[in-house]
Amino acid sequence: MGLFGKKKKEQTCSCGGACTALNAENADAAVKVLGSGCAKCNELEQATREALAELGMDTTIAHVTDFAQIAAYGVMTTPALVVDGKVVSHGKVLSKDQVKALIEQARGAK
């Protein structure tokens, strides 16, 4: 019998247990757009889709809207772009060409 009740549960994901089943599905996505779903976030997502199409990459894009998950990346200004788990841009809407350059740079640095 514990002195003060419940044991702490082990965390199984990087979000600290704040994710939902939908967000857990997107945990494996290589490219993520972080933001509330506003027009600027959607604009960045569209530019990212176009950039990936031009690069010939068949990569899943996840749109993360949960603020706890966004904060887990250390992002305080959205929209933000995450490539392979690394934040490559935050706080501004990028053009298709800017997104292409960031993806190529992130993928080439591996």
Automatic annotation (TrEMBL):
Pfam families: Thioredoxin_3 (PF13192). Residues 30-104 form the Thioredoxin-like fold domain. Signal peptide: none annotated. It comes from the Bacteria. NCBIfam families: redox_disulf_2. This is Thioredoxin family protein. It comes from Butyricicoccus pullicaecorum.
